[in-house]
Specification:
The complex is a heterodimer of chains A (about 270) and B (about 290).
Chain A (H helix, E strand, L loop, with lengths): L2 H17 L2 H28 L8 H14 L10 H11 L2 H5 L5 H19 L2 H10 L8 H27 L8 H14 L11 H9 L7 H7 L6 H31 L6
Chain B lengths: L6 H12 L3 H22 L2 H28 L8 H22 L5 H7 L2 H6 L4 H7 L7 H17 L6 H31 L4 H15 L8 H10 L7 H8 L15 H21 L7
Helix pairs in contact in B: 2-7, 3-8, 4-8, 4-9, 4-10, 4-12, 9-10, 9-12, 9-13
The chains are: A mainly alpha (about 270), B mainly alpha (about 290).
Chain lengths: ~270, ~290
């Protein structure tokens, strides 16, 4: 089996694994829709008070809400997906088996996570967006080009999200209980991805810092592309920003992995 | 036939008279025992407890930070000042935090149904509800209660409320009744998980979603939504109706003022309905059999 085909098969099985739980997916969509509804009304109140806040008009702000609800499970803002599993394998020592498999550890999990993200983008993304579109006035682009550009930004966001969570999972080599690190990174994700409030509404220095952190590549960047705030060189700049974080964090993951595997002692001999 | 009852008859009748009370007392005792066990096991790793409690605190605090960030850009939201929003936020968060602390593990019920471990609970001579509620009792959830109380304290410090005896009395009554309303939602959600095992996330939209909704003033939301949480799922009785009375603000729906004092009976009705739902759910349970 060629390497490409191997990872493609892993990605497909990742997709199918999440597609199995239909009731759970429906429940998740329902919850996202309820939270979307609550956020949408608070944003309406906020933008009524200050039209044009953060450079968005009200329709753009509402689009941001529903986009966020549709997107946050695909880019795994709150964590979830593979990192618990990998951390568990590190803790139990099963990682030793993974390490002598003829496949690259990082690429394997990346493929599995890409499959998950693809399913969650479709399974959990489309319905909240449609609901939002039906009941609120959204500012969705009409040209296919912007949608295509948006999808590229989403995939770069998934890549950055994976790279962050890979680092979190690898921390299990050093901490017997990785819950603390996971919780901390999860909190940072919720806050700095812009899930609670768009990052361009963050005031002053906090906003400037939030916008250059890797989490802004997860949701804020794809949202800005879809809302038509990034075109031409601006679009390339956004891609470059996302890709640099993805590259840097994936490289850090590889480095950490090589350090970890050199010092790993598998329990139980 | 009009003889006074003899001593033996009285003793024979006693178990029946107690039948409704004893399970409740037994259940409460079992709940405390199981919760105490989890607290002892948590305290075996004190550093871990301190960290996760802080994490719980920080996670809920971020909600409020988002509100603070909003108010860094605006002076009012839906006509309410930061202090007033903090007041509603603190009440909702404290009431929900108490429930979350007491029975927050109810949302794990679906998993127990799925993997078959619920059967273990059924054979024990203790009410299932008490066991499920105390399962993995997490003292770290004090973090949320603490955060809610701090925000409420801040609100009381900055707001200039015209206190009356009724308002002062209403404050603790409101928090306790609110916690009971949320508890009813948790239990009803648990009952729903007997039917739809994978759908535990639906419960989150009414529990976590409910408390998030109540953190904002009702004027922010559409009238239909406010009507829904007033008359259908009476979450508005947690903090909106009584809280707005304390603040001296009109409720967006045209309701008489005494409605603000209804949280205790509303909570009692909710709990009774949730209890019925729980019984129905438990009766409909069929083990996986694998």
């Amino acid at each position: 089996m060629g390497t490409g085909r191997l990872y493609a098969a892993v990605a497909v099985s990742g997709f199918r694994r999440y597609a199995t739980y239909r009731v759970a997916t429906a429940a998740g969509v329902f919850t996202n829709t309820v939270f979307g509804l609550i956020l949408a009304y608070t944003y309406i109140a906020l933008w009524d008070e200050r039209p044009g806040l953060g450079g968005y008009d009200q329709a753009q702000a509402l689009t941001y809400v529903w986009l966020g609800q549709g997107l946050h499970s695909a880019v795994a803002v709150m964590g979830g997906g593979f990192e618990d599993e990998l951390a568990d394998r590190i803790r139990t020592g099963d990682i030793a088996i993974d390490l002598y498999r003829p496949a690259d550890l990082q690429a394997w999990w990346l493929a599995a996570d890409a499959g998950r993200a693809a399913f969650q983008l479709l399974g959990r993304g489309v319905v909240p967006m449609l609901f939002g579109g039906l009941f609120f006035t959204l500012a969705l682009p009409s040209d296919l080009g912007t949608w295509a550009a948006f999808l590229v930004a989403v995939w770069l966001g998934v890549l950055v999200s994976f790279a962050i969570r890979y680092l979190v999972a690898l921390s299990a080599f050093w901490f017997m209980d990785g819950a603390g690190v996971q919780q901390l990174v999860g909190l940072a994700g919720i806050f700095f991805s812009g899930l609670l409030l768009p990052l361009n509404v963050f005031p002053g220095v906090l906003g400037e810092v939030a916008r250059v952190l890797p989490w802004s590549a997860l949701m804020q960047a794809p949202a800005d592309v879809l809302l038509g705030e990034r075109t031409g060189f601006g679009l390339l700049g956004t891609y470059a920003f996302q890709a640099s974080w993805a590259f840097a964090l994936l490289a850090a993951g590889r480095l950490l992995q090589s350090v970890a595997t050199r010092r790993v002692v598998v329990q139980g001999g | 036939m009009a003889e006074p009852p003899t001593g033996t008859e009285e003793r024979a009748a006693a178990p029946d008279a107690w039948a409704d009370v004893t399970p409740l007392r037994d259940g409460l005792r079992a709940y405390l025992l199981i919760a105490g066990m989890w607290v002892r096991s948590t305290m075996a790793y004190r550093a871990s407890f301190a960290m996760t409690a802080f994490g719980n605190f920080a996670a809920t605090a971020l909600d409020f930070v988002a509100i603070l960030l909003m108010f860094s850009r605006v002076d009012e939201l839906g006509g309410y000042s930061l202090g007033e929003v903090a007041f509603l936020y603190g009440l909702s968060s404290t009431a929900f935090g108490l429930t979350d602390l007491a029975i927050g593990s109810m949302d794990r019920l679906g998993r127990r149904v799925r993997d078959g471990t619920l059967d273990t609970l059924l054979v024990r001579p203790v009410p299932v509800l008490a066991q499920v509620a105390a399962d993995r009792f997490a003292l770290r959830r004090l973090g949320r209660v603490t955060q809610g109380l701090l925000v409420l304290g801040y609100a009381l410090a900055v707001l200039d409320i015209e206190w009356t005896a009724a308002k002062v009395l209403l404050m603790p009554v409101m928090v306790v009744s609110g916690a009971a309303v949320f508890a009813a939602v948790f239990v009803a959600g648990g009952a729903f998980q007997f039917v739809a095992q994978d759908a535990s996330e639906v419960q989150n939209s009414f529990t976590y979603g409910g408390t998030t909704l109540l953190q904002y003033p009702p004027t922010v939301f559409a009238k239909e939504l406010v009507r829904g949480v007033t008359f259908v799922l009476p979450l508005a009785f947690v903090n909106w109706l009584p809280g707005l009375y304390v603040l001296g603000r009109p409720y967006p729906l045209d309701l008489p003022q005494w409605v603000a004092f209804l949280p205790p009976p509303v909570a009692a009705v909710c709990c009774a309905l949730a209890g019925l739902a729980w019984r129905a759910g438990l009766r409909s349970y069929r083990s996986t059999g694998s």
